[in-house]
Write a structure and sequence with these properties.
The complex is a heterodimer. Chain A is of the alpha+beta class. Chain A has a domain at 134-245. Chain A has seven helices and eleven strands. Chain A has helices spanning 22-28, 83-99, 104-113, 134-141, 174-178, 215-222, 233-249, and strands spanning 4-9, 12-17, 53-58, 61-66, 77-79, 148-150, 157-159, 186-188, 192-195, 198-204, 211-214. In chain A, strands 2-1-5-3-4 form a five-stranded mixed beta sheet, with helices on both faces. A four-stranded antiparallel beta sheet of chain A has the order 8-9-10-11. In chain A, a hairpin with a 2-residue loop joins strand 9 and strand 10 (198-204). In chain A, helix 2 packs antiparallel against helix 3 (104-113). Chain A starts with a strand and ends with a helix. Chain B folds into five domains: 6-109, Glutaredoxin (3-Layer(aba) Sandwich); 131-340, NADH-ubiquinone oxidoreductase 51kDa subunit (Rossmann fold), CATH 3.40.50; 350-433, Ubiquitin-like (UB roll), CATH 3.10.20; 438-526, de novo design (two linked rop proteins) (Up-down Bundle); 536-597, 2-Layer Sandwich (Alpha-Beta Plaits). Chain B is 37% helix and 15% strand. Chain B contains 24 helices and 19 strands. Chain B has a five-stranded mixed beta sheet with strand order 12-11-15-13-14. In chain B, strands 2-1-3-4 form a four-stranded mixed beta sheet, with helices on one face. The longest helix of chain B has 18 residues, at 458-475. The radius of gyration of chain B is 26 Å and the shape is globular. The N and C termini of chain B lie far apart (72 Å). Classes of the chains: A alpha+beta, B alpha/beta. Chains A and B meet through strand 4 and helix 2 of A and helix 17, helix 18 and helix 19 of B.
Chain lengths: 251, 600
């Protein structure tokens, strides 16, 4: 059993295990901290959007930390709504809203922060991506590794190597689905899907005809040594259930 | 008469090589050969190609040792005269002259007289590629002593020295080592940060080039202290000469039994290798550097768990800067207390600075911590070129700040300048005169960082993008009321909320110039005027007919062909052709080129 600690977040006493992330403790206790680059789907977090900043006071010293990756190692007092945090979070949000002016979600969140004085900022034309990196994390965790962040500084973006169609992409849409700003575009016809400059054939269930994904994604999900399924999950289960019923009827 | 050994030291640091030092060395060697002096066993005269001697602006530099005669601005065709002077009078025209005085010896020259060399003690004196020259000057004695000590004793010695990380952060080296030594997780690593990337900085590069064994010895001692058996030197791509010298020094150390399975015959082992940086400034940041060594994208990570606990390959790792490591051999050899004799209360020892810009004698200097900027610029550096008024000194590169005249008498150490909103930084120093626009300087650094930030976190990447846009607007006459406050707002957020130290210090050039030169920002914004006459969109140039001598220097310097006027005639600038680049003002020796506010 790990050592237990009691900390105070916005005046609320919270118990937690030593080493737990501050964000997890706060949300468990009903204290809201905004996050963008953090997803429950992953164990490690990039801590790059910086929207989850809070102030932590330890041994009389106050510092700004990102709640999503800050491990609680000692008793502390946390402020998620101090003037400093509200101001700096608003600046970060304004920066993101101008980074991704085409994202409605960013515009809404920016409005929600309720601070002004940012009209002077320039907008990045036609941009929706906030470079949270969740898409890259998703792609890596699936073992495909087709996309990554490329370039650096203000030119940084998410792309396939050299912008060419990637041999490793399976067109599974995990990147697009995990994206908080719907920045990853794809098109789909009756038989094909195009994403990251590559066209994939769609695979349909031989039983019910529902969409199973792309041919490549179905193969990738089955694993290298397994047979590629020709029916969807629902039909496979139904078939299995039918077989079971047949078997047990005669017992 | 030459009495026994006479070594002719030719500075072959990067600066002197660029000025033809290799040709000078060859010419002197040829001259010796031609006279049969090189083979004369009774004389033992040799040409030694050394690392950086320091006073780069006066290079190539040639020095006789032990006679201690120093020649400056030497050319290959001076070789005969130099060899003549081995047995005769010094070559007058090659000696250092200042204020009517001539200096024969290095230590008489005020540039060197005020220095105190610890890290650079062998740089410029020995052949960096000859391990025996390093050993002859007391090299590897610190290591020998360390091998008789326990790790705890080594660390205690370093703690006593008060050594703090000279890459700029100033973290106590002894404490870092003690923390790393305390983890029982193996393997552990020792890493040398040789990714010096600040514009205008060349302290670490010169140290690696000129005394590579000092860095290696420091790493071996560090490895003994923390219990590491593997070490990596991360050296930036641009430092080809430094990498070459370090690699050859590593090879020599293996051959001498100093590296490898049995360090100097002991039970300890250490393997060292070089990892070449890819040219990204951000890879000088500790966690980005380690990611780069591991073969991943050079992006920093959140450092709530420190590298000494989980660093390279998630193992305990000590990362020290080149200059810190090169200080270690002396600390072990002479004792920590001796090292701590020099410096200030909280910043012990010395610091190397690379002084460039509008200072007369640019170069590499090492001074006791606590030396004032005024001493550095005026006593060592000889003052401002053409004796123009001093305006600011930029310290610490893109992470540092611009320090104005009123702070020049503060002692330079890790803490004092910070209290005044500036910082000492890693040691890069760019001196600026009254013809530097502080808004433009801030814009330059922000522009640099827009390219060199890793781009991972929002405040740094997007904050820099917005700062660049606002600063460009201010420089080009589109500044708006409230811009200064917005820059400060973004800057404060970057300082608090950025992921790594690069982002947290990135607004420093902007914040310090606003703090110390706010009136200059206001002039740009309110009056659309660049007081320094630099910002092209706000400035127009004219020639003062009273002062112009018709020397034609300006018209020859003008890239746009905008200046007319014959020899000994008053020159005139055609405003329609002028691109306001300022080349004419730089070229004019008579202060005849005037700047004024360009009407809207």
């Amino acid at each position: 059993m790990n050592e237990m600690l009691t900390i105070t977040i916005d005046g609320v006493e919270c118990t937690c295990q030593k080493g737990e992330y501050l964000y997890d403790v706060a949300t468990r206790n009903g204290i809201w901290i905004p996050v963008l680059c953090r997803s429950d789907a992953f164990d490690d977090h990039r801590a790059c959007c910086r929207i989850c900043i809070v102030e932590v006071e330890e041994r009389g010293r106050r510092k700004v930390v990102t709640a999503c990756v800050y491990p609680i190692e000692q008793e502390c007092t946390v402020y998620t709504k101090s003037e400093k945090i509200l101001e700096e979070r608003a600046v970060i949000m304004a920066l993101l809203a101008h980074r991704a002016p085409d994202s409605e979600r960013m515009a809404e969140m920016n409005k929600f922060m309720g601070r002004s004085g940012f009209d002077r900022l320039i907008s990045v034309d036609g941009e929706k991506c906030i470079l949270c990196g969740l898409c890259v994390q998703a792609c890596n965790s699936l073992g495909t590794g087709a996309i990554s962040t490329v370039l650096r500084g203000t030119d940084k973006k998410v792309d396939t190597p050299y912008g060419n169609p990637s041999a490793f992409c399976v067109g599974c849409l995990s990147c697009a689905n995990v994206c908080p700003t719907d920045a990853i575009e794809y098109t789909q016809t009756d038989t094909t899907r195009t994403i990251w400059n590559r066209e994939f054939d769609l695979a349909f269930c031989e039983e019910c005809g529902s969409l199973m994904g792309t041919t490549e994604s179905v193969r990738h999900a089955a694993g290298e040594d397994s047979e590629v399924p020709s029916v969807c999950d629902a039909c496979r289960k139904k078939k299995l259930a039918d077989e079971m019923m047949q078997t047990y009827r005669y017992v | 008469m030459i009495n026994g050994t006479e070594r002719i030291l030719v500075c072959c640091g990067t600066g002197c090589i660029a000025n033809g030092a290799l040709g000078v060395a060859d010419a002197i060697q040829k001259e010796l050969d031609a006279r049969g002096l090189a083979d004369d066993v009774k004389l033992d005269v040799s040409v030694v190609r050394t690392g950086c001697s320091g006073e780069c602006e006066q290079g190539p530099i040639v020095r006789f040792m032990p006679r201690d005669l120093m020649y400056y601005r030497v050319k290959a065709n001076d070789a005969a005269a130099i060899v003549d002077s081995l047995e005769g009078e010094p070559v007058q025209k090659l000696l250092f002259k200042k204020d009517g005085q001539t200096y024969e010896h290095m230590d008489d020259n005020p540039f060197y007289a005020l220095q105190h060399k610890v890290v650079l003690k062998d740089v410029g004196v020995i052949d960096p590629l000859d391990i025996n020259e390093y050993i002859a000057r007391g090299g590897y004695e610190g290591l020998k002593k360390a091998l008789t000590m326990t790790p705890d004793e080594i660390i205690t010695e370093v703690e006593k020295s008060g050594l703090r990380g000279k890459g700029g952060a100033g973290f106590p080296t002894g404490r870092k080592w003690r923390t790393a030594a305390g983890y029982d997780v193996f393997p552990k690593y020792i890493v040398c940060n040789g990714d010096e990337g600040d514009p205008g900085a060349f302290m670490d590069g010169s140290t690696m080039e000129g005394s590579p064994h000092a860095v290696i010895e420091g790493m071996i001692i560090g490895a003994l202290a923390i219990g590491a058996e593997e070490g990596v030197l991360y050296i930036r791509d641009e430092y080809a000469l430094a990498r070459d010298h370090i690699q050859r020094a590593i090879d020599a150390a293996y051959e001498a039994g100093i590296l490898g399975d049995s360090i100097m015959g002991s039970d300890h082992k250490l393997d060292l290798s070089i990892v070449r940086g890819g040219g990204a400034f951000v890879c000088g940041e500790s966690t980005a550097l380690m990611a780069s060594i591991e073969g991943r994208v050079g992006e920093p990570r959140a450092k709530y768990i420190r590298s000494v606990q989980r660093g390279l390959f998630d193992h305990p790792t000590v990362l020290n800067n080149v200059e810190s490591l090169a200080s270690i051999p002396t600390i072990l050899r002479d004792g920590g207390e001796a090292y701590a004799q020099v410096g200030t209360e909280r910043s012990k020892g010395t610091k190397v600075f690379a002084m460039v810009g509008k200072v007369k004698h640019t170069g590499l200097v090492e001074v006791p911590m606590g030396t004032t900027l005024r001493t550095l610029i005026y006593d060592i550096g000889g003052g401002i070129i053409d004796d123009r008024p001093f305006k600011a000194i930029q310290t610490g590169g893109p992470s540092g700040g611009c320090i104005p005249e009123e702070l020049l008498d503060l002692p330079v150490d890790f803490d004092t300048l910070v209290e005044y909103g500036a910082m000492m930084g890693s040691g890069g120093m760019i001196v600026m005169d009254d013809r530097s626009c502080m808004v433009e300087v801030a814009r330059y650094y922000v522009d640099f960082l827009c390219e060199e930030s890793c781009g991972k976190c929002t405040p740094c990447r997007e904050g820099l993008r917005q700062m660049r846009a606002i600063l460009t607007d201010i420089c080009e006459g589109r500044g708006k009321h409230g811009d200064i406050e917005l820059l400060e707002r973004i800057g404060r957020t970057m300082q608090d909320a950025s992921l790594c130290a690069l982002g947290r210090t990135a607004p420093n050039p902007v914040m310090t110039t606003i703090k110390f030169f706010r009136d200059e920002y206001e002039a740009h914004i309110e009056r659309k005027e660049c007081p320094a006459g630099v910002c092209a969109k706000l400035t127009q140039f004219a020639i003062d007919p009273e002062a112009c001598t018709g020397c034609t220097m300006c018209s020859r310097a003008c890239p746009a062909g905008a200046i007319s006027g014959g020899r000994k005639e008053t020159h005139v600038i055609d405003p329609h052709l002028c691109i306001a680049c300022g080349s004419c003002r730089e070229a004019c020796r008579f202060n005849a080129v005037l700047t004024e506010r360009r009407p809207a």
